[in-house]
Every structure is written in C-alpha cells, then in structure tokens.
Design a protein that fits this description.
Shape: globular
Number of helices: 7
CATH superfamily of the domain at 36-56 and 81-223: P-loop containing nucleotide triphosphate hydrolases
Oligomer: single chain
CATH topology of the domain at 36-56 and 81-223: Rossmann fold
CATH architecture of the domain at 36-56 and 81-223: 3-Layer(aba) Sandwich
Helix content: 25-40%
Strand order of the largest sheet: 6-7-8-3-9-10
Strand content: 15-25%
Largest sheet: 6 strands, mixed
Structural class: alpha/beta
Order of helices and strands: EEEHEEHEHHHEHEHEE
CATH class of the domain at 36-56 and 81-223: Alpha Beta
C-alpha cells in the first residue's frame, strides 16, 4: 500500500517506565487504511503502553511516530490526531467522567466544534446505533460493567473516527454483551487495532493477529482468522489456528 494509506507508522520506538527495563524495545508497526489487526501477548508485555504511545499519552525515549503521514512530536500534533483516532481504554471508568450518559457521549462532538444541538443529535444517534436508546439520562457511575463498556464505545464512535484502538473491549463481559459488542465492531468499516486475550473475539473481528513480546510486535508469524465452528464440552475455550 502507498504512504497515503498509512494511518499509523511507529519506527524503532523505545519506552521505559523506570529507566532500566524497556517495555517497548525498538518496536516498529504500521496500520494502513482497511487493516483490522488483533494484538495478543502476556500481561505486562506492553500492549496498553503501545496504544498510549500512539495517542501521545506517553512519550517514547527513542524512535519516531507518524500519524496520517505526518510526524507527531508535540502535544498539539497529538491533539489533532486524537480527533481522527478513537481509543477505548481497558477500564471504562477511565473513559467516562460526566454525570450522565448523554453528556459523556456528546462531549467528543462538542470538542470537535459541533453545536450543542448537533452534539446532542449525534450522541442520541450513536446510542441508538448501539442499542442504548433511553440511556441518555442514566447516571454514568450507576451503570453495570457491560453498560459502561457499551457507553464508552459510544463516546468513541460519536467522534466519527477514521481508526479505532481498543484495549481489551470484551474483558469481564457477560456472553450477551460480548456478542453485542462483537457484532457492532464487525459491522464497522474502520481501520483498527484490537488488543484482546479473547481469540474467539479476534477471529470474528480482525483479519490478522500479531503477537507482542520482548518489547516488540512479531509480524513474521501472523495468525489469519478464518471461519470455523467448534463444539467444546466446556463451552468457549481459547484456541489458535495458524494458516
């Protein structure tokens, strides 16, 4: 693909929290338009840090970041890119901060310069799209875990992003809510990176699955999702197929 199709380009990124062990060690990564990439790896391997570096929430000690073909270094650069890339945090409580659901979902469009009326309409349409009509006046902190996850996704989608970065979007969900989110994400025509331990979810929603370890993303052994049906005596079990 040409450079015009390159949304995210990380080159030789290094990051450390304490100054000794590198969480990201000369990591390189590319996301092109139309890519749907899953990312797996053990806890603590740097997957969340990787997403936060892309969004400018953490700054690397070495390497370069390009978003939409432009080098990003300063906060103002990242601020512009955040209008086009949506990040779903692993913990919905990190995403939701307004008293009501409507205020939370309308915040992004307001931040993009929409009028209060336009922002309200966008918020209501987004909630309806996610099956959350009637939630607009609900108190955010009183929502269930699954409801918070869906509302968090609504806050991201209301900004009409060009790419999505989702950190463990099905973590801790009941099966019904997981299936609902899976169905929603499958229907989105967006470039995306989904971090998850849930391989069934990744096989349903992504085209390629990369592994992360030792501070790098391994792309030489790529798992390619394909349609498959299994019957497990113990219900849904993690399983991997290599093409």
């Amino acid at each position: 693909m040409g450079s015009n199709n390159l949304i995210i380009h990380l080159k030789d990124i290094s990051f450390s929290y304490s100054g000794d062990r590198l969480v990201l060690d000369h990591l390189s990564f590319q996301l092109h338009r139309g890519d749907r990439i899953g990312l797996v790896g053990p806890n603590g391997c740097g997957k969340t840090t990787f997403l936060h570096v892309i969004m400018g929430l953490m700054r690397p000690s070495a390497g370069s970041i390009e978003l939409f073909g432009k080098g990003v270094r300063e906060e103002k650069d990242f601020r512009e890119a955040r209008k086009r890339i949506g990040l779903l945090f692993q913990d919905p409580d990190d995403q939701l901060f307004s008293p009501t659901v409507l205020e939370d979902v309308a915040f992004g469009p307001l931040n993009l310069g929409k009028s209060p009326v336009e922002a309200r309409d966008i918020a209501l349409q987004t909630l309806a799209r996610l099956g959350l009509s009637g939630f607009e006046n609900r108190i955010t902190y009183k929502l269930s875990g699954g409801e918070k996850r869906l509302v968090s996704l609504a806050t991201v989608l209301a900004m009409n992003p060009e790419a999505l970065l989702l950190d463990e979007p099905t973590n801790g969900l009941d099966e019904e809510t997981e299936l609902k989110i899976t169905h929603i994400l499958k229907g989105l025509e967006l470039s995306c990176v989904f971090i998850s331990h849930n391989l069934d979810f990744l096989f349903e929603t992504t085209d390629r699955i990369y592994a992360m370890g030792n501070g790098k993303i391994t792309v030489d052994e790529v798992l390619v999702p394909h349609t498959h049906v299994h019957a497990h005596r113990s219900g849904r079990l993690p399983h991997v197929h290599k093409s």
